[in-house]
Specification:
The complex is a heterodimer of chains A (504) and B (343). In chain A, 34% of the residues lie in helices and 24% in strands. With 504 residues, chain A is α/β, with parallel strands linked by helices. Chain A starts with a helix and ends with a helix. With 343 residues, chain B is mainly α. Chain B starts with a helix and ends in a 21-residue tail after the last helix. Chain B has 15 helices and two strands. In chain B, strands 1-2 form a two-stranded antiparallel ribbon. The chains are: A alpha/beta (504), B mainly alpha (343).
Chain lengths: 504, 343
């Protein structure tokens, strides 16, 4: 990593932006922001959603034109403007969060797409395309069957394809927008190793990420944005996670363990020897009134599969589920909801909420039977039910009729939680409740969940972010390859020890 | 499992279904597997195959078109009237006029979709009604039976007398169809423009970020379909030896079914020329077989519908399930496996 940290005074930035401002319909998305990155440097661009990170990337890539007064200097050359074509020619490559790949096309075509683009019609030289793709992959030390369609590959491999594509364009600066958002720890490690390889070969890498732990491990400097303005540029050495969080949000956060003593409360849900082939095996636990049971482990540990089984969407092959002393057997999630189990999906965008529908319609989705009058939906009952939950969870909305997609991630998640609370559950399963929710907004969601637990709701809280579980659960199950690998009491262990156990 | 089989599962399944049906018909009728009947199948399928490869390009680019069949009827009328205007014309002027009018009608759709941001199904349902309405209004529903002689004379490219004294013939529409199939295949599989059409249909936003001209994609796709519709219209008039205003009305659904049966995806990014040809042939073989077996024509539609359902079900089942022996190489679907069940 000697190259990455070598940002001495003699070196010239490969890319430098000064005085960047952007206004959208009266809202200033960027206010006089500066940004620079050194050749071969790994640089982190941090900030909450809406802080201007994505806007800045779009300025860099030429998608947006900044307000007059902006200065863009690339490799010593001052540019008066930037267009997408210029950005590509200069070797500024963006790996978008959605990757912008073509799933039905082959890996080779995806990587070498540049040789397929361009306005002039030409015959396709497939052998050249395969060669380009294999070369790019071998630079990353990865072997993939380049003739198979991209859709055959998992998300981590698609990410590698996107990086390989950037390399084909003779990249000199690569921006990666939330590259680790959907990767497991080992996949993330592999990706970071690739970032190091790129950096060592002189390519500057800008990581736009909210998973701060990884960023700290690999970046040499960090640029923090808040509300469209530059907070500052800091060397990573000596930075702590909570320090960065404070810079990003402008607030300090209480990082105490919330765990409470709940062993005297009556058992609500009892699971014994629950198994499903190839998903999880011999899972047993008791969940008490008012208890928050944390479930953590790597992706693929069987956490979500277990939750879906408790929620009646999958049938266990062995074992039993007992709810308030009565054995239950759900044939669908409708049975589970009726029995008092609620499940907040890990995928809020596509499964948890219906994005084009209104806030009100989303909120009442799981409790329609409560707002009926003579078999039809009574709009007055619906309105008052929605108003109650909006007020209760402090959700900031315009109108009830607005589409849910108009809300921020944090407020959307509150609506999703309200949707389940409206079913009056006894057990609430939260699967990755803070995915896509800003650091600042997370605290609000944690507060809500803590309050629900105080009020006696039994909560199962699933997350692969170990600190989240550590700080917010009363007891923690660590799952590994479908089995319970260990029980932890947050009051009796440290975060470090827990992380070591999970990532072992 | 060999790559070719896995990547072309739909084509493999369709071929298998056609072979099974062919074998059954060969055994149960004495005329099915004769040169005369096979040539007949090609002659009657040609117009639809030309339509399908045109529609395929639009589907791959992520659009859909309802209007192309009635547009072909408009092409027939305009072409015949124009030919009358220039004193009869010939094949060259016939093709030029039909192709130009077809392209023009296709580009109208592209303008509506690209310029006015109307989604393709709505835009083309509207033009479907406009084209057909104008046609009925101006023709008052009257057919044209007096076509130029060159247009109604059968052009036989290859013929052979059979033992029973009948003639097995390959006619002009088959040659035109083969030309259309080959050029569409060349466009889609071998040119950068074709791959850009795939990319645009697969992930429009991704294509846009790569600087692919979105407008050009729409114009090429709908222009190509218009060209094919124009050519198909001329061939249909030639084959039927008359121009009837509602002759092609409703054909769009048969063609759409054949393209989707052939593996094209509604929504874009996927589909093959071979699949289109097989999709049309499957329906033709079914109808031909029912004819030869003496089944009442009133039952045709019903049976064709059932065959389409059967074939599409077979091709959507994973091949591995149909033939476990073939599935030695396991697929890596990674961490997303299992989530599919919920959706």
């Amino acid at each position: 990593m000697s190259i990455a940290t070598d940002t001495g005074a003699s070196a010239r930035p490969i890319l430098s932006l000064r005085g960047i401002s952007m206004t959208f319909g009266g809202v200033r998305a960027l206010k006089n922001v500066s940004f620079e990155v050194m050749p071969g440097e790994v640089h982190c661009l941090a900030g909450e959603n809406g802080s201007g990170k994505s806007t800045l990337i779009k300025v860099v890539s030429g998608v947006y034109t900044p307000a007059p007064g902006a200065e863009i200097v690339f490799d010593g050359e001052t540019l008066t403007r930037m267009t997408p074509v210029m950005a590509q020619e200069k070797g500024i490559q963006i790996i978008w969060q959605d990757l912008a790949l073509f799933p039905e096309m082959s890996v080779a075509e995806n990587i070498a797409f540049q040789s397929l683009s361009g306005p002039r019609m030409r015959l396709v030289d497939y052998s050249a395309i395969r060669r380009i793709a294999r070369n790019a992959l071998s630079r990353l030390g990865v072997m993939l069957d380049v003739e198979r369609p991209l859709k055959d590959f998992a998300i981590a491999q698609r990410q590698i394809v996107a990086i390989a594509r950037a390399l084909v364009g003779e990249a000199r600066v690569v921006f990666m927008d939330e590259p680790t958002a959907s990767l497991t720890q080992s996949e993330t490690d592999h990706l970071l190793a690739i970032v190091r390889t790129l950096s060592a070969s002189g390519v500057a890498v800008v990581l736009v990420s909210h998973r701060l732990a990884e960023v700290l491990a690999i970046s040499s400097r960090i640029t923090v944005l808040r509300d469209g303005a530059l907070v500052g540029v800091y060397p990573v050495a000596g930075m702590t996670q909570s320090g960065i969080t404070e810079l990003m949000t402008g607030r300090s956060f209480d990082e105490r363990v919330r765990a409470r003593e709940v062993t005297k409360n009556p058992v609500v849900l009892s699971v014994a020897h629950l198994s499903r082939p190839r998903e999880f095996e011999d899972i047993s636990f008791d969940l008490r009134r008012g208890e928050t049971l944390g479930v953590t482990g790597l992706l693929g540990a069987g956490r979500t599969e277990l939750a879906l089984t408790l929620f009646g969407m999958r049938k266990p092959s062995a074992g039993s589920i007992t709810l308030e002393g009565r054995p239950v057997r759900f044939s669908s999630n409708r049975d589970a909801i009726a029995a008092g189990i609620a499940y907040l999906s890990e995928d809020r965008l596509s499964l948890g909420l219906n994005q084009p529908q209104s806030i009100a319609d989303n909120l009442v989705m799981a409790s329609l039977d409560r707002i009926l009058k003579r078999g039809l939906i009574a709009s007055d009952r619906k309105r008052s039910l929605v108003a109650r939950w909006i007020a209760d969870l402090g959700i900031r909305i315009g109108l009830q009729e607005d589409a849910i997609s108009t809300l921020s991630g944090g407020n959307q998640q509150r609506v999703a939680i309200a949707k389940w609370l409206a079913t009056d559950p006894k057990v609430l399963i939260l699967d990755a409740p803070t995915v896509g929710v800003d650091v600042g907004a997370r605290a609000g969601i944690f507060e809500i969940v803590a309050r629900l637990a105080e009020a006696g709701l039994a909560i199962i809280r699933i997350s692969d972010e170990v600190p989240e579980v550590y700080l917010n659960a009363d007891r923690i199950i660590h799952m590994k390859k479908g089995r319970i690998a260990g029980w932890h009491d947050p009051r009796a262990t440290t975060l470090k020890a827990l992380e070591a156990a999970v990532y072992a | 499992m060999p790559n070719v089989v896995r990547h072309h599962a739909t084509e493999v399944v369709l071929t298998a279904v056609i072979i099974v049906m062919g074998a059954f018909l060969t055994l149960s009728t004495d005329r099915f597997l004769t040169l005369g009947n096979v040539f007949d199948l090609l002659n009657i399928s040609s117009v639809n195959i030309i339509f399908t490869v045109g529609l395929l390009v639009v589907l791959i680019a992520g659009g859909i078109d309802i209007s192309f069949a009635v547009a072909a009827s408009v092409v027939q009328y305009v072409t015949v009237l124009a030919l009358g205007g220039i004193g009869g014309g010939g094949w060259l002027s016939g093709f030029l006029i039909a192709a130009s009018v077809g392209i023009l009608l296709g580009l109208i759709n592209a303008v509506l979709i690209h310029r006015f941001r109307i989604i393709s199904i709505v835009a083309t349902i509207a033009t479907f009604n406009i084209y057909f309405g104008l046609l009925m209004f101006f023709t008052k529903g009257v057919s044209i039976y007096t076509l130029p002689d060159w247009l109604t004379t059968r052009v036989v490219l290859y013929e052979r007398e059979m033992a029973d004294g009948s003639w097995a013939e390959i006619t002009l529409p088959v040659a035109v169809m083969i030309l259309c199939v080959m050029t569409t295949w060349l466009l889609l599989a071998r040119t950068t423009t074709g791959r850009q059409l795939f990319a645009f249909g697969d992930n429009p936003e991704g294509a846009r970020r790569f600087g692919i001209p979105i407008g050009a994609m729409q114009f090429i796709a709908f222009g190509w379909l218009g060209l094919m519709a124009g050519v198909a219209g001329l061939m249909q008039a030639h084959y039927a030896q008359e121009v009837v205003p509602n002759a092609l009305y409703g054909r769009e659904l048969d063609v759409l079914a054949a393209v989707v049966l052939g593996g094209a995806r509604l929504g874009g990014g996927k589909g093959s020329v071979l699949g289109c040809v097989l999709g049309v042939l499957l329906v033709s073989v079914t109808q031909n077989g029912l004819n030869l077996m003496g089944v009442s024509p009133f039952a045709f539609k019903m049976i064709v519908g059932a065959i389409i359902l059967t074939a599409i079900t077979l091709s959507s089942v994973r091949l591995e399930k149909l033939a476990p022996i073939l599935s030695r190489r396991t697929q890596d679907t990674g961490s997303t496996a299992g989530k599919g069940e919920i959706r």
